[in-house]
Specification:
Shape: flat
Structural class: mainly alpha
Largest sheet: none
CATH superfamily of the largest domain: UbiA prenyltransferase
Distance between the termini: 56 Å
Strand content: under 5%
Oligomer: single chain
Number of strands: 0
Number of helices: 15
CATH topology of the largest domain: Tetracycline Repressor, domain 2
CATH architecture of the largest domain: Orthogonal Bundle
Length: 298
């Protein structure tokens, strides 16, 4: 149970409410989507667009923690968050999240264009309503469908710069969408007891460890295809193509031991842990290569 009286919060609690580690990847992919666009907005407007993406991601984190405070209190890895530990008031977190989200959307529309603002609004609502409130407590496919929320940033960055859609940012959306299940399921294998305690139907809890390992490998293949596709489609140049090919090959090679692993309890040196660690580097490196290719090759 959570405390009924909130203890004094400081800036670190407010920052923690926005899930800054998750936000860093969101901001980076959004920035890369903007920088890969064929034309760039003025510096001040480009900075504002990325700020809006960051604020929108922060709003998602705050509203997620507001809604899941009772679940967070049951899990060891989340019990010390500001709300379940009683350092922040739940109503205040709700107001903070709604205000931050609304401000980010309005500012994006005024600074860039309303198509980008609309995409930002859809991504926030998708994460909070579709994933957090609807999918997560009901289906083991929650992270598959809900992963779309985290795939929006490069598309938003591109549209903020150009005002329209294009095949390349759609492929970047598909890449993150396919990357999310193997990335998240590799982690969930290590914390499935937490999810079981909280009653959250994550795949390892309801379908077992071995089925989760198979699903990790199966999603890795279309993820690799989406990552490499911009090169043969001539949407990106050789720097991106070589980097995407090598990084995706490493990802698949790391997913093979996960598929073959028969251990019932993941260890500190388990292939799942290596895959999870590489999956974070993979996305940063892929998007970094895209920007390098855009600015070096043109």
């Amino acid at each position: 149970m959570t405390n009924t009286v909130a203890l004094p919060a400081d800036w670190r609690d407010i920052l923690a409410l926005t899930k800054p580690r998750v936000m860093s990847l969101v901001v980076f992919t959004g920035l890369c989507g903007l920088l890969a666009a064929p034309q760039l907005p003025p510096l001040a407007l480009g900075f504002t667009a990325i700020l809006c993406i960051a604020l929108g991601a922060g709003a998602c984190g705050a509203l997620n923690q507001w809604y899941e405070v009772e679940l967070d209190a049951k899990m060891r890895r989340t019990a010390k968050r500001p709300l379940p530990s009683g350092r922040m008031d739940r109503q205040g977190a709700l107001h903070f999240g709604v205000g931050l989200g609304a401000f980010s959307v309005v500012l994006m529309g005024l600074a860039t264009n309303w198509l980008a603002a609309g995409l930002l609004a859809v991504s926030i609502l998708f994460y909070v309503v579709v994933y957090t409130m609807w999918l997560k407590p009901r289906t083991a496919q929650n992270i598959v469908i809900g992963g779309a929320a985290g795939a929006f940033p490069p598309l938003i960055g591109w549209v903020a710069a150009t005002g329209h859609f294009a095949p390349l940012p759609v492929l970047l959306f598909a890449l993150i969408f396919m990357w999310t299940p193997p990335h998240f399921w590799a982690l969930s294998l290590f914390v499935r007891s937490d999810y079981a305690t909280a009653g959250i139907p994550m795949l390892p809890v309801v379908a077992g460890v071995q089925n989760t390992r198979r699903q990790i490998f199966l999603y890795t293949l279309p993820m690799a295809a989406a990552a490499i596709a911009p090169w043969p489609l001539r949407l990106a140049g050789p720097i991106y193509g070589v980097a995407a090919g090598l990084l995706s090959a490493i990802f698949v090679l790391l997913a093979l031991p996960v598929l073959a692993n028969q251990a019932t309890e993941p260890s500190a040196m388990a292939p799942e842990k290596r895959l999870f660690g590489f999956s974070v580097l993979y996305l940063f490196a892929i998007f970094g290569a895209l920007v390098a290719d855009r600015w070096i090759v043109g």
